[in-house]
């Protein structure tokens, strides 16, 4: 996924704008904290609490606290100096998981199952991901495997028309596995690089969803033993810590291989991205910071760490 340099103007501006609520919340929680060349235990406790309240999660907060406890500040520690250290540690957390979704499967297509609860922005994310691949000159096909919602089939069809890419779909209530079977056959015959499969977002009955995904995997295995090559979970950042429990459930149910986090521009809870990275270590392929078709991209961990910390 060789995208344009994201350290340059437009994307950087969108990141800072998108994470403004998150960085302002973090700054607000850290307001008034500071001290001498070394932080006291009480100050470190307050800092750790502030980081947890900013949705970075207890593990990341403890890690940043430990790093700050080691720091000897040249001048007395103020909020800026503290955030510089925090940003460096956040970057250390994000670097191992910042892994773009690369199209490497041979033979083609690379089959990407996209999962996530209804309302997470899953269908729109699929369209944005397809557009991202198109920008890299890959051919893309969509499969409307969420057959339990006519709206999902219709919405995906609209996006396919808009992006001028083929889509395989069936009737509402149809068998998702048969649609996936038809899609893989068609994509193989047409030499498509990436097949992106929408799947049902029901978590009310985990067993039912697990059985459905297992059936899809069996069907895929008959056509291409390596498929699915990726199982990508779409998370809505506005859910904060609830997003982490979704990772836990979908890891068990679906064997998640990577994450995409959306709606980071609409929340003060963007710190959950750091919590997810520290707690699960799953690749985070891309982040969404807006509603436009090109507002989903892989991220530069060092830049993003400074954005979260509010350091220009």
Summarize the model shown.
The chain is 50% helix and 12% strand.
Note the main sheet. Answer: 8 strands, mixed
CATH top level of the largest domain is Alpha Beta
Order of helices and strands: HHHHHEHEHEHEHEHEHEEH
Radius of gyration, in Å, reads 21 Å
Mean pLDDT: 91
| Integer count of domains | 2
- What's the end-to-end separation, in Å? 26 Å
Proportion in β-strands: 5-15%
Number of helical segments with 4 or more residues: 12
The CATH topology label of the largest domain is Rossmann fold
Low-confidence stretches: 2-7
How would you characterize this protein structure?
Pfam families: SRP54, SRP54_N. It catalyses: GTP + H2O = GDP + phosphate + H(+). One of its GO terms (biological process) is SRP-dependent cotranslational protein targeting to membrane. It is found in: Cell inner membrane; Cell membrane; Cytoplasm. It is a peripheral membrane protein. The structure is a single chain. By secondary structure, this protein is α/β, with parallel strands linked by helices. It folds into 2 domains: 6-95, SRP54, nucleotide-binding domain (Four Helix Bundle (Hemerythrin (Met), subunit A), Up-down Bundle), CATH 1.20.120.140; 110-300, 3-Layer(aba) Sandwich (Rossmann fold), CATH 3.40.50.300. Helix content is 50%, strand content 12%. It has an 8-stranded mixed beta sheet, with helices on both faces. Strand 7 (284-288) and strand 8 form a beta hairpin. Helix 3 runs antiparallel to helix 4, helix 4 packs across helix 11 (272-280) and helix 6 runs parallel beside helix 7 (150-163). The chain is elongated and about 65 Å long. Residues 2-7 have low confidence and may be disordered.
């Amino acid at each position: 996924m060789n995208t344009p340099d994201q350290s340059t103007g437009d994307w950087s501006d969108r990141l800072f704008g998108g994470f403004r609520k998150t960085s302002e919340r973090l700054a607000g929680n850290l307001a008034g904290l500071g001290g001498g060349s070394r932080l006291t235990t009480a100050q470190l406790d307050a800092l750790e609490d502030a980081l947890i309240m900013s949705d970075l999660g207890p593990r990341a907060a403890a890690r940043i606290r430990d790093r700050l406890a080691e720091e000897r500040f040249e001048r007395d520690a103020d909020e800026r100096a503290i955030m510089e250290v925090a940003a460096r540690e956040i970057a250390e957390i994000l670097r191992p998981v910042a892994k773009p979704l690369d199209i490497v499967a041979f033979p083609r297509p690379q089959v990407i199952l996209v999962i996530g609860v209804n309302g997470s922005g899953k269908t729109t994310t699929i369209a944005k991901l397809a557009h991202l691949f198109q920008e890299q000159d890959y051919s893309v096909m969509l499969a409307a495997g969420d057959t339990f919602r006519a709206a999902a089939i219709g919405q995906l069809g609209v996006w396919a028309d808009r992006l001028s890419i083929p889509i395989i779909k069936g009737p509402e209530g149809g068998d998702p596995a048969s649609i996936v079977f038809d899609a893989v056959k068609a994509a193989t015959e047409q030499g498509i690089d990436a097949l992106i499969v929408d799947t049902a977002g029901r978590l009310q009955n985990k067993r039912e969803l697990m059985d459905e995904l297992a059936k899809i995997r069996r069907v895929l295995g008959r056509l291409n033993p390596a498929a699915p090559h990726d199982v990508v979970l779409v998370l809505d950042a506005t859910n904060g810590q609830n997003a982490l429990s979704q990772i836990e459930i979908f890891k068990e149910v679906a064997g998640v291989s990577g994450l995409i986090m959306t709606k980071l521009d609409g929340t003060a809870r963007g710190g959950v991205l750091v919590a997810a990275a520290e707690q699960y270590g799953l690749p985070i392929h891309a982040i969404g910071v807006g509603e436009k078709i090109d507002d989903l991209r892989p991220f530069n961990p060092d830049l993003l760490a400074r954005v979260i910390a509010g350091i220009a």
